[in-house]
């Protein structure tokens, strides 16, 4: 008979019985609440700014190769910073990485060309 009772029915029966002296009533368990970080918007804005800087410096580093070092710095900051990144920010990082790879290819070709002459 006890097996056919539902969990709710067993809970009602347990609460209806008087408690013995010396026992402590169980405390109700609360669900954990997610607390949002109030600085998340600021972190996201900073990450978006780094993504834009990365794209710009990676693009300009094709013409002026030493700027590639700064582009790599901005790229790491954009990729590994905290906060959310919009789809536009993801596109900026993707195109910036393509520009950095092109810059690296151009640098290697330049070094090989100078080495062969």
What report would you give on this structure?
The protein is 64% helix and 0% strand. By secondary structure, the protein is mostly helical. It has a domain of 77 residues. α2 packs parallel to α4 and α3 runs antiparallel to α4.
Give the SSE layout.
Layout: H1 7-16, H2 40-60, H3 67-80, H4 87-116
Quickly list its features.
rod-shaped; mainly alpha; 4 helices; 117 residues
Write a concise synopsis of the structure shown.
By secondary structure, the chain is mainly α. Helices cover 64% and strands 0% of the residues. The longest helix is centred in the last third of the chain and has 30 residues, at 87-116.
Strand content is: under 5%
Class based on secondary structure composition and strand pairing: mainly alpha
Please bin the fraction of helical residues.
55-70%
Q: Which parts are unreliable, with pLDDT below 50 for 5 consecutive residues or more?
A: none
Q: How far from one another are the termini?
A: 95 Å
Provide mean pLDDT, rounded: 81
Strands, count? 0
| Radius of gyration, whole Å | 30 Å
The SSE order reads HHHH
Shape: rod-shaped
Number of discrete helical segments: 4
The description of the largest β-sheet is: none
């Amino acid at each position: 008979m006890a097996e056919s009772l539902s969990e709710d029915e067993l809970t009602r029966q347990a609460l209806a019985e008087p408690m013995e002296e010396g026992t402590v009533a169980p405390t109700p368990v609360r669900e954990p609440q997610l607390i949002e970080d109030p600085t998340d918007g600021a972190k996201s804005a900073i990450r978006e700014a780094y993504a834009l800087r990365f794209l710009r410096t990676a693009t300009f580093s094709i013409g002026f190769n030493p700027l590639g070092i700064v582009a790599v710095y901005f790229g790491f900051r954009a990729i590994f910073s905290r906060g959310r990144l919009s789809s536009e920010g993801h596109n900026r990082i993707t195109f910036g990485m393509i520009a950095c790879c092109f810059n690296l290819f151009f640098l290697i070709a330049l070094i090989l060309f100078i080495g062969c002459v």
